[in-house]
User: What shape does this take?
Amino acid sequence: MSKTKNVSKPPAGGTSRREQLRQQQAQAAREHKIRTWTTIGIAGVVLALIVGAVIWGITNSSTGTPSTASRNVATQDYALVIGEQDAPVTISIYQDYMCPYCGQFERANRDDLEALVANGTAKVELHLMNFLDPQSQGTNFSTRSANALVTVANAEPEYAMAFNAAIYDNQPGEGTSGLSDDELVALARGVGVSDAVSATFADLANADFVNGSNAAAYAAGIKSTPTVKINGEDFTGSQIFTAGALRSAVENAAG
Assistant: This one.
């Protein structure tokens, strides 16, 4: 608080020196009281802010709400990582939602992939591609569906694998227009994705990520889909379409 220096004036109307002193003392007492309550008020506001911040931190901690960083599974090298980060085995899957063989692989291995992730044996890296966009009659189905999955994986990762499965269960034929945005929204909501998240699919906010993922796959030498790798080693042949074969190979890799 700024202070104004009082300039003493001669007592008016014959006021005695004692009376003048008494008035000065009373004024000083009033000023002290004002400063004291102002200080207490400021301290109270600061304390309230501190307490509020502590309560906010405790509340968020107790509810187990993960930070943005821990919820965001989209990595800088354009992979969607699903599962425990320290899992001993990494299953890398390069896929395009318009690719019929990708659907065949996912449906054959779905249960095993979910089990391996759930028990901590493996984490899954989905590398989304959109090179089959020209096969969807101009609707860019590969990009739109992959964008929808990235959106779910970032916002509500607990539904990512179920949504991935739902897309493949309803996979359109190559050369068709693919699923509409409304159909993708319905599939997402059907597995538990919130309205707030699914309503953003048409914004294509993650289309650049999908384009980057496709380019990164080409740069890594990927020539076909599905391409599957276990800890960086190719898992190939007809066994990729046989239920149980992938799980056995992953468990062997885990030791």
The beta strands are 80-82, 89-95, 122-128, 227-230, 233-234.
